[in-house]
Amino acid sequence: MNNPIVSAPQLQNSAPLINRERLWQSLMDLAQLGATAKGGVCRLALTDLDRQARDLFVRWCEEAGCTVSIDGIGNIFARRAGRNPERAPVMTGSHIDTQPTGGKFDGCYGVMAGLEVIRTLNDLGVQTEAPIEVVVWTNEEGSRFPPCMMGSGVFAGKFDLEDTLCKQDEHGLSVGSELQRIGYAGSRAVLGHPVGAYFEAHIEQGPVLEDRETTIGVVMGCLGQKWFDLTLTGVEAHAGPTPMHLRKDALVGAAQVVSAVNRIAHAQQPHACGTVGCLTLHPGSRNVIPGQVHMTIDLRHLHADKLQAMVDEVRQVIEDTCLQHGLSFELTPTADFPPLDFDPACVAAVRQGAEQLGLSHMDIVSGAGHDAIFLAELGPAGMIFVPCEGGISHNEIENAAPQDLADGCAVLLRAMVNAAQGQGGQAA
User: Fold this and answer.
1) Which domains does the chain have, with CATH numbers?
2) What confidence category does residue 428 fall into, taking pLDDT thresholds of 50, 70 and 90?
3) Could you give the angle at which helices 402-420 and 344-356 cross, rounded to 10 degrees?
4) Strands 328-337 and 224-233
5) How confident is the model over 371-409, as pLDDT tens digits?
6) Spacing of C-alpha 43 from chain mean position
7) Nearest to 155, CA basis, from 185, 190, 192
């Protein structure tokens, strides 16, 4: 684009500017790819449906005048040129892969909101000083290929590219081979790209905004996360002849650990979460005392010291439980994400955008992982939350109101334009 910067006084007032119907229709069109009978979406990373969704995004971005590039892990970058190509881009985005029983909005809203920002700037005839980029990050969910937040993790240098390309799904298919198969193994380097600022719009995935009847969540930061695999080993034995006091029941031990994880999280409020999401036992016969249990533990907190205290307490419970019931254990760390505070200027930009538009807003903390967590290590970053119905996400009934989505996008528009216009943060 070679147009001069056009003054846009519309961005200085409370007019939303966003085309609500266009944003909603884009979300609904995208949701047709992998649509489920229950109204959700199943579009796992690097499947044929993911390829179709990527193709649609690329077509829409090219139609909006963007230049599209793809890197070695399949991240898609759609750039709207700025007047100064030397300026680091102001970026937004999220993901379009879903859970096996996912919804229409998780991740997809952030991508479509970014596209709507570009379309709106085109409608207004506004050119920003810095380029604007909308990104589709590869395999944020991690449902098919571990780990989650794969594409942004490689981009931020947290995951090695070659190691990541070798990751396999349950059928032995690798990330690299599937990227090649669907045509999204790009040539753009994965590292070394400057980030002027990054904003990510997202449904809350929790019930707080809806409960408080508030439209915009000004995301202050993200909870730290520590994940573990735990194996408790006892002795399987006959359920009838083995007296209760002579048993080494791994499931009884597991039950105490589950209860402790819940109790410890309740004791560390606010901002603490503790979850046992997976539990399997061996041998799994109704008249055999369980000899071994495999389980996962997910601990989260906003403050690193409190998070570590939760870990220490859970480990002590495990040790005490094993001693009590004659069990042994193996506790293996599987993920460690430190708590994150978003950039104060980005947080302020989101808050100011909501205030300018006259939208109800509140400070909020994200309990989930997002690509913005990794981008925050490369440049200033912030997030915008909007309510979702019942706080439900990762579910086919996931839902959000068209007006809330449009309002969040209107805040995103102002935050990105302000960041793209230079040191003074002046709108176009």
Assistant:
1) 9-222+339-420 (3.40.630.10), 224-337 (3.30.70.360)
2) very low
3) 130
4) antiparallel
5) 999 999 999 999 999 999 999 999 999 999 999 999 999
6) 15
7) 190
Cα–Cα distance for residue pair 62/256, rounded to 1 Å: 56
H-helix or E-strand spanning residue 150: helix 150-155
- Is residue 81 a contact partner of residue 90, using CB atoms and an 8 Å limit? no
For the beta carbon of residue 142, count every other beta carbon within 10 angstroms: 17
Q: What is the pLDDT of residue 9?
A: 65
First to last CA, the chain: 15
Q: Phi-psi category of 149—alpha, beta or left, where left has phi over 0 and alpha has psi -120 to 50? A: left
Crossing angle of helices 48-63/20-31, nearest 10°? 150
Quote the pTM value. 0.87
Is the sign of the CA dihedral 151, 157, 161, 166 positive or negative? negative
Q: Judge whether 311 and 226 are in contact, CB under 8 Å.
A: yes
CB atoms within 10 A of CB 2: 6
- 424 half-sphere exposure, CB direction, 13 A CA radius: 4
